[in-house]
Design goal:
single chain, 202 residues, mainly alpha, fold of a uncharacterized protein from magnetospirillum magneticum
């Protein structure tokens, strides 16, 4: 990694609130549709909560998941939101993975430094030890990680692996799979930041 990457590690604090949910495609697409109708995130939040668009049983779960979904969707450009709502299922999942990587520097770094590196070296199996080694390597740069409980660390790993399975970057045996990124998704990512194309192993 170059100096700029090290600079980023030192200066960017990792947000780790993604334990609230995995990619949750159907829920996220519903909220994105509300936003495209409303054109305002505050109105989107109010409408989605008041009408329980996620169809959750408890208000606490609804509020927590809505907050997390909206925090992710807010990072997307308009063309990505439109494709998320209207695209093919594989495009929707790829946009959701892109969203997670933009929203969470930790997830982006893992995608680049672990998954892509292993893929390039033709090491196909992604293990929990890979994750733990990555996590521990970041402790020197990010003191916020050191404050996490063991339970939270476990949940972070579980959710991240679930995301990777949802987007089919890994299979049920945790083997890394080549991802054929949709041309429309590629165009959106190139317009945003071409480096994000590297979050997909190919």
């Amino acid at each position: 990694m170059g100096n700029s990457a090290n600079q980023t590690q030192q200066n960017v604090k990792y947000g780790m609130s993604y334990t609230a949910c995995s990619l949750v495609p159907s829920e996220t697409i519903k909220v994105a549709q509300v936003y495209l109708d409303e054109g305002d995130w505050k109105k989107t939040s109010q409408y989605a909560f008041n009408n329980n668009v996620l169809q959750y049983r408890t208000e606490n779960a609804l509020k927590r998941t809505l907050s997390e979904i909206i925090s992710r969707l807010k990072v997307l450009p308009e063309d990505a939101l439109n494709l998320l709502v209207s695209g093919a299922p594989n495009e929707q999942l790829q946009i959701l993975w892109f969203t997670a990587c933009v929203r969470y520097q930790f997830i982006y770094d893992f995608a680049i430094e672990v998954i892509r590196e292993k893929y390039n070296l033709m090491q196909n199996e992604l293990t929990q030890l890979d994750y733990d080694a990555f996590f521990n390597s970041k402790l020197n740069w990010h003191e916020e990680l050191d404050k996490l409980t063991e339970n939270t660390r476990y949940k972070l790993r579980q959710i991240l692996f679930k995301m990777l399975r949802e987007v089919e970057i890994i299979d049920t045996n945790n083997c890394i799979m080549t991802t054929f990124v949709s041309p429309r998704v590629q165009e959106i990512i190139k317009n945003y930041d071409i480096n994000y194309l590297n979050i997909f192993p190919n």
